[in-house]
Design brief:
This protein is 61% helix and 0% strand. By secondary structure, it is mostly helical. The protein folds into 2 domains: 1-65, no CATH class; 70-107, no CATH class. Helix 3 runs antiparallel to helix 4. The radius of gyration is 16 Å and the shape is globular.
Length: 107
């Protein structure tokens, strides 16, 4: 991280170049570990919420199945999304995934 911060000292904290480099480093050094990917991305600084979410999304995709994710990350959510998007507050992540897959296959 020190090398990344030194290489990009003038970039704003939301700039894509250092954040993309941080994500690549976090995912690579975590070696497929879901928790390690997220914590490395967040501890690197810059755009921490976006980097943590992106690292978690990629690591979750690489895990291959929701059951492969640590329960400490999934259980507190109780399979429910809280959102202000009309008609979707309280929807289950499993239902949301099914609806997304259905839309992806429609085109």
């Amino acid at each position: 991280m020190d090398q990344l911060h030194a290489a990009h000292p003038t970039h704003h904290w939301v700039h894509v170049v250092p954040n993309a480099a941080l994500l690549a480093a976090a995912l690579t050094h975590a070696d497929g570990d879901f928790t390690g990917s997220i914590t490395r991305a967040v501890s690197g600084g810059w755009d921490t919420d976006s980097n943590g979410a992106t690292a978690g999304s990629v690591a979750g995709l690489l895990a291959g199945h929701p059951a492969a994710l640590p329960a400490r990350w999934t259980a507190p959510l109780k399979n429910r999304l809280a959102t202000s998007v009309g008609g979707f507050d309280g929807i289950g992540f499993d239902t949301l995934a099914e609806l997304t897959a259905r839309e992806a296959h429609r085109s």
